Each structure stands twice: as structure tokens, then as C-alpha cells.
Amino acid sequence: MAVAKAEKLPRPDIHPAPLIDRFTDAAIWVFALLAVALFRIIDSTLDLRIFGHEHVAAVLHSKRPFLVVVWHGRGLLPIFFFQGYPLVVYSSQSRTGQVPALSRYVRKLTLASLRHLGYQVLDASTFHSESRGVIRFLQFLERGSGGLIAADGPAGPIFRAKPGAVYVGKKTGVDLLPVAAAIRDAIAIDSWDRFEIPRPFTKAVLAIGERLDIPEDIDEDGLARVSEQLETILNNLTARAEVEAFSAPGSRSAVDPTAPQSRRRRRHQ
Q1: What pTM was computed for the model?
Q2: Distance, CA of 150 to CA of 69 (rounded, Å)
Q3: Is the pLDDT confidence value at 203 over 90?
Q4: Which residues, in sequence order, are CB contacts of 87 under 8 Å at separation 6+?
Q5: Other CB atoms within 10 A of residue 33 CB
Q6: How many domains does the chain have?
Q7: Considering the domain boundaries, does residue 10 fall inside one?
């Protein structure tokens, strides 16, 4: 996919909304705030183990923007872990499910929740076209913002990396930071990605990999190879996280007995 640079940032299309739509949006905004507050409570009860803090520290020390890359269905824990970092999320056009109206409301709720968590959200539905939204996302990254992207989004297949993340790395120069998650006891949503929500007091693991630097002059074959490499890395990190998450309580790390781990989220300044 070729994306041309624009001299001016594409602006979202703004149209006056009917009163009922404004009321609905306000209700969704409040409900999203309550949902985030509820998950913060659940999050505080988790036995959370984090592997790979040193990779986050390394990318922050480099002073280069980075793109967090996750699996779509395992994105909840990484989203909460990286809240507070200056990251942009681009949301593609809605893929309606069996109940289109419900799908639209769920999408609006998701985007409102991301904004409550401090993410800057670019909604494709507010642009003239999908390509203009992508251009805006690339321009944010080129100007120093970081981002977050699902390697298998927006509609799967699950755990199969598409070339989007690697392409973004090539066009903008951001480092890719692969992050995987596993939850011992989770509610899995009946969707293509089997999106997971942790139950209170369960064990959860984040596994963070080394950053990937994508050469600016990489060709199409190279993009395909690095996308396959990224898929392998994410799946390996996911497997490692699952081994640790489902290990017996009280046992030493099943991943690596010497690996640093934490029950609490830490920030690197």
C-alpha cells in the first residue's frame, strides 16, 4: 500500500450531530468512564508478572518513538500497562457483526475508553477515507509520537501478523516493541479474536520483547520476511507468557528462573 505524504494534516470531517446522537455519545462517554474505573479495580487485584522491563527502558533511553505491537484479543493488559505514555491509536473503519447497531456502540465504547486512559485516538470514520486516516496516523508518528497497533487487526485471522506494523515502521522510522499477554482465568468474548478480560484476583503475565528497527530501504520481500519474524516473536512471547500464567502457584518462574519479574506496574522515567 502506497501512502503519499500530505503537506497539511488531513482533518476529520465534522458534521453537526442530531440531538439523539449527542445524547447517545454522552451516555457512551459516561459508561466508558465507569467501565475504565471498574477495570482499574479489577486490575489492582491481579497477580501481575511482567517480563522484559529492560526492553521498555531501552527504547525510552533511545529517545526514539516506538510502536507497541500486540495481538488484538490480548490487548487489554498492554493497553493498561502503557497508559500514560504519549501513544496514538488508529481505529480502522468499523467491521459490523451480526448486530450492526450493537457493533457500532461497542466500537464507540472502546474508543471512548481509550481516550479516558489517555490515548490519542484517530477514528477512521471521521475522515473522508481510510487512506486519509492512515496518512494522519503516519504523520503523528513521523513527528515524534508513539503508537499502539494490533498485528492481527482489525479483523484477523487471529495470531497472524499482517504487514501493517512493519510498513508503519518503515515509513515513519519508529521502533516496533512486541508485547504479549496471558491471563490464567479470563472471560473470552465470542468474537473472532477471542478478546480476553481477566477475572479478579487471577494471575496475569506481560512478556515484552526486544525492539525491532525496520530499515527505511526495505523492499516488499523484506517486509514480508520481517512480518513473519514479528509474528513468530509475538507467538513465542505469548507462549512464554502462557507458561508462566498457568504455572503452579508459588513455583519459581517457569519461563526463566533468573528473569526479572514484578507484581506491580513500574514506570521508567
Answers
A1: 0.85
A2: 6
A3: yes
A4: 68, 119, 120, 145, 146, 147, 148
A5: 14
A6: 1
A7: no
